[in-house]
């Protein structure tokens, strides 16, 4: 009888302490913010810029589709639209400069940012081709030259920022992709008659 009481007491005691023994051990709270930037520090602003540029390109496309050809009046409006895109890229360049200057970047974030920047540059190139294709014979592409030169300069800054950081994280293949992207954009500008 005493044996059964001892077993019952042991079982009751075990039931009480088991939750304590199986509770997870708390790990020390380590602040890693100084070691690595949060995921998305580069790509989140790049994605935001991409969506805004895409919206503006869609807006430009709508204006182009609404006419047979682009006259001088619409051309002046499209210059202003391209300046909006330029402003978005300038903002992205400033943000990337700050984030990259802080160091401790995440390689996956760099890869994602590079892919997004390449998409942005392709959007810019595509809309320039659309504009040039619909220009009236009486309108010179030179009305777009000033804004396209600024756009090119801004793209060069952004791409050079990323080219500078990629080798530090062993992402040499991305340097090739970025260089090809810039070369393609220069090719677009040249093809529409604007030498950058």
TrEMBL record:
Keywords: Membrane, Signal, Transmembrane, Transmembrane helix. Residues 1-22 form the signal peptide. The chain crosses the membrane at residues 112-133, 139-163, 170-194. It comes from the Eukaryota. This is Transmembrane protein. It comes from Cladorrhinum samala. The lineage of its organism: Eukaryota, Fungi, Dikarya, Ascomycota, Pezizomycotina.
